[in-house]
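User: Show me an example of a complex going from sequences to C-alpha cells.

Assistant: Sure. Here are the input components:
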Amino acid sequence: MAMRVGQNLTRCGDAADRPQQEFADETFEESDMNAQSARLRNLALVSLAALSAAAMTLHAGVASDAGEGSRAAEKVLRIPMTTDGPKSLDPVRGSTTYENRCCSQIYDTLVQYKYLKRPYELEPSLLEEMPAISADGLVWHFKLKQGVYFQDDPCFPDGKGREVVASDVFYSWKRVADPKYQFKSFWLLEDTIVGFDEFKLAQEKAATFDYSAPVEGMRLINDCEFELTLKRPVQQFMWRLAQFQLSIVPREAIEKYGDRFNRHPVGTGPFILRSEDDWKIGTSLTLHRNPTYREEFYPDEWMPEDEAFGFHKPAGTRLPIVDRIEVTFFVESQPMWLKFEAGELDYTTVPETAYESAFARRSRNLRPAYANRGITAHKLPLLDFIFRGFNMEDPLLGGYTEEKKALRKAICLALDWEEMNEAYYNGTALVYDGMIPPGLDGYPADGRLPNAWRGPDLERAREYLARAGYPDGEGLPTIDYYTSNGATSERMAALTARQLAKVNIKINPRLVDFSTLIEAVDNKKAPFFSFAWGSDYPDAENNLALFYGPNEAPKPNHFNYKNAEFDALYEKIRTMPPGPERTAIYEKMRDMVLEDCPYAGSMARIRHYLVHPWLLNYKPSETFFTWMKYLDVDDSKRPGASR
Amino acid sequence: MWSFILRRLLYNVPVYLGILLLVMGLLRVRNPVYAYLGKNADEKQIAQLEESFGLNDPFIVQYGRFLWKGLRLDFGESWKYQGTTVREKLLASIPPSMSITVPALILTSVISITVGLMSSFYRGRWIDRLLVIAAVLGMSISFLVYIIFGQFFGAFLPKQMGLEWWPLEIGGSFDLWFSMSSFSVFGLRVPYPDINAMTWVKFCLLPVLISVIVSMGYDTRFYRAVMVEECNRDYIITARAKGATKRKIMFVHMLKNAMIPIITRIMTTLPFLITGSILLEMYFNIPGMGRTLITAITDMDYPMIQGFTAVIALLYILSIILTDVLYALVDPRVRLS
C-alpha cells in the first residue's frame, strides 16, 4: 500500500500561487483583490518606507525616554501570524501550519524536536526516553513520563486534570481513523502499524466507532508502557510521532465537548486556552501558561553559532518562560509590519512590500535604521520544493523514450529560475538542482548538480528540442500549462511562456482555482503544471516519496512517475537508519529522477525574520512549532511597555 | 400600504429563490473537496467527504434542503470551522461590521448633505469650487491608499512620535466595544449593553474616519447635483423673493424636496451596513461580515458562502421595498399601489 506524505504544509499549488492556505505568510504574493490594487498598495507602501525610516529615527529618541513604571508584571510574548488563524484547535482536524503553530503550544506529542539542534533531531517529550526499537526494527517499546497531567478542566472530576496514561495515546491515535474527522491525518499512521488499516476498515463498516476495539500492533503493557508492532521497519515513523496531529488528548474532553473540542482544547502542553473567548476567531488567540505543566527545562545542547545570539544562556531554565502568548492574525501584511515597527509585535516575517525598506538592495544587509535599534535579522531556508511538473502519462510530454525525455529536458533548459526568483522573490529564494531541499541529506553541495537540466541554456534547449523531433519547435503542439489563478500566478505564467517562447515552445496557461488545479492533476489531465511541496519532516524520504510509483495521482506522485528500480530503492530507504549509506541511495534516487526529468525546477524560499532586541532565545524554525515555550522577553528593552 | 408591502414581498420571493439557486449552482461548478483535502487525498477519501458534505445528492435535493433549513435560519455548520454553525458566525460578525458602517454612514450622510447644500447654494463661487475640487480629489484616490496612509499617519506615526495617549490602533486584536450585561428587577433579568466608548475609539474610529473620507467625495458630488437641480426650482426663487433666510431655504425648503434621491442613496447603502467594508475589515483585522465572507470564499466554505449570501440578498430586497415605502412617506405625491 502506498505511503502518503505531505499533509502538513504541503497542500499547495505554487509557493507563490497559494500563499493564503499553504505557504501563506511566507510568499511574496499579492493576496488581495487584483493586480491593480496590489500595485497601488505597493506604491503606497514604498513611499511609506522612507517615512518609516524617519519615524523610526524619531522613535529611537522618544523610546529612550520611556518610563520604567509602565512595564508589564507578566511576561507577554506578542507574535503575529499572517493568516486569519487556525480553523480548529483539535489536532486531529488540523492540517495547516497555522493549526500546527497553535496546537503545538496546547498539546504534547510523544517526541519533540530539539530546539537548538541542527540538523534536526528528536528528543522525548511525553516519553521518559526515546522508544526502544527491536533489532529487526519492528517492535517499538514506549515508556511514558510519570507525573504528566492534563490541564485542569471541567471535563475531569473536580475539574482537576488527571495523569496521562498509555491508553490516552491509543485513544488519540485511533481518532485519525475515525470517519468523523475525515481522515485528514490518517496518512500519518497508514500502512505502518500492524492491524491499524484493518481497524479503520472495520470501524468504517460499523455503526459506531469503537475506540476500545483492539489493534493487533498496539499493545498496552501498563499505564505508562506500551508497544507498537510495525508492518515493516519505517525509520521515518519517529518523525511522524512528532507531528502535532498525533498529540495526546483526553477522552473525557472529547466526550464532553464533542465538536466544540475544536474551540475548547484540553492538553498537556505548556500553554492553555483559559476560555473559548481567548480565541477570537480570525483576529487573535491568547494562551496562558499552564500552571500544571510538567517539569521541563531549557536545553543544554546548542550549536556553536547559537552563542553569538545568546541562545545558550538560559540553559536549565524552567519552561515555559513567558506567562502569556498573544497571537494576532493578520490577513494583510501592512498592519503587521507597522505593528512590528511600532514595537507592538516581538518579531515579524518580512513581507515583500517591506523587503527593500528592511534590507539594502545590493548587500542585502539589514538597514542601519533597524540594526541601530538592536533588531536582528534571521534567514531561514524553508524545506521547499517548488517545481513545474510533467504528467508522465501525457501523450505529448510523458513517456520514458529518449525523445520524450529530450522534450522535457528542452523545457527545463529553457526555463530561467533565477529570473523567476528575481522577479517574484526579490532574488531571495534559493534555486537548486534536484528535489531534495536545502539542509537535508542528499541536497547537493552549493545546490548544483552536473547532471541537472538547469536553464537558461537556450542552445542546449534547441538541441534537445531537435532530438525530441521538434527542430526549432516545429510541429510541437501548444502545451496546456495549469497553474492556480491570482495576479502573481498570472504574471509568473506569462514569464514562463515568454521564457519558453525563446526556443519556440508555446504554452497555453490555464489559470484555474486551486481546487480545479488539484482536480486536474489528480485526474491526470494536466500535462504541465505548477506545484510546490513543503516537507512534513526533515528527511529527504518525504520528497522522494513524491516519485514512488504506488503513490501516483491522486496520491502525491502527481508526476505519475514510475520506475521499478526507484521504487525498490524507496522501499529500502524507508527501513534504513540515517547514515552515509542511506545518503548515497538518496543521491542515486535523486539522479535517477533527474535523468527521467519528470519535473522542472527547483526552488526553495528563504524566510526573513526580524526580531526585536527584547525577544530572547528566538531561533526561527518552521519545521516544528513547539519553540514558544523556550522564548523569553526582556521588558526593560521594550519601548513604552504599556502599549 | 400593508398590502403593497405584502405584494412586493411576494413578487420578490421568486427573485430571492433565483439568487439562491444561482449562487448554489455556481458554487457547484467546481468540486471543493479536492482543495479541502489537499493534494494527498485518495479517491476513497474524496468520495467519503463528498458524501459527508452532501455533495453527492442531486442538486435539487441540496437546494431544497438549504431552503428548508434556511427557513429556520439554520444554514448548517461551517466546513472549515467545525463545531461552529454559520448562524453563530453570522451573528458574531454583524456587530463588528456595524460598529464601523453605522457611524460611517451617519457621519458621511450628514457631512455630505450639508456640504452638498452649501456647495449648491454658493455654486460657481470659490467655496463651491474648493469643495468640488476636494470631492474630485477624494474620489480620485484609491480606497487602499487611504487605508495604508490612514494606518500610517493615523495610528503608527503619532505613537512613533511618543504620543502614548494616542488612542487609535493600527489594527490587530479587535475587541468589541460593548458586551451584553443584565440587571435584575423583581427577579427578572433585564439585558443592557455594557458600552466601552474608549474601545470603540481605539478599534473603530480610524476605519470610520477613512470610510467617511472615501465616501464623502462621491456623496458630496451627488448631493450637490441634486441640490443644484432644486436650487433652480421656482419655489426656491419664490422663497428667496419672500426674504426667507439662507438657512431656512437650504434646510427647510431644499432639503425636504430633495429627500427622494437622498433616501434612494441612503437606502441602497443600508445592506452594506451589515456586509461591511471588505478592505477595511481586512486591513484593520475587524472580524466583520465582509472579511468573514471573503475568507469563506477563499476557503471554499460553501455553507458559509450560502448562508451569508442568503442573508445579504434578503437584506438587499428588504431595503428596496423599504425605500419604496419611504418614498410615499416623505412625498405625498407618491402613491403605493
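The lines above are the inputs; the final block is the predicted structure for all two components together. Chain B touches chain A through 59 residues (CB under 8 Å).
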